Amino acid sequence: MAREAAEAARDGFAGKLCIHPAQIAPVNAAFTPDAERQRWARAVVAAFAASPDQGVLSLEGRMIEGLHLRLARRILQSAEG
């Protein structure tokens, strides 16, 4: 279950259906963003907050835009539980 849930999270899914209580912990672990992912999301949100009139920014040498901001907000929301 842990491997399957991790693969689903990597593929962009936001969750996984559990049919047994023993599945809850590995699924939660797979879909809870790790510290590095949360750091990136906070950096994206901060970058757009600092430049609210910009549609496209550069962060850590990469282009980010509104799609990344929405993803970052979703990551931070899922990290909060």
Question: Which structural traits does this protein have?
Answer:
81 residues; mainly alpha; 4 helices; 59% helix; elongated
Descriptive notes:
With 81 residues, the chain is mainly alpha-helical. The protein has four helices and two strands; from the N terminus they run αααββα. The protein has helices at 2-10, 24-31, 35-50, 66-80; strands at residues 56-59, 62-65. The protein has a two-stranded antiparallel ribbon. Strand 1 and strand 2 (62-65) form a beta hairpin. Helix 1 (2-10) runs parallel beside helix 2 and helix 3 packs across helix 4. The longest helix has 16 residues, at 35-50. The model has no long low-confidence stretch (mean pLDDT 93).
Summarize the topology.
Layout: H1 2-10, H2 24-31, H3 35-50, E1 56-59, E2 62-65, H4 66-80
Antiparallel strand pairs: 1-2
Helix pairs in contact: 1-2, 3-4
At a glance:
Helices cover 59% and strands 10% of the residues. The protein has 81 residues and is mainly alpha-helical.
Strand content: 5-15%
Mean pLDDT across the residues is 93
Distance between the termini: 20 Å
H-E string: HHHEEH
Q: pLDDT below 50 for ≥5 consecutive residues: which ranges?
A: none
The major β-sheet equals: 2 strands, antiparallel
| Estimated structural class | mainly alpha
The percent of residues in helical segments reads 55-70%
Instruction: Report the oligomer.
Output: single chain
Strand element count: 2
- Order of adjacent strands in the largest pleated sheet: 1-2
Task: State the helix count.
Answer: 4
Overall geometry? elongated
User: What's the alpha carbon Rg, rounded to whole Å?
Assistant: 15 Å
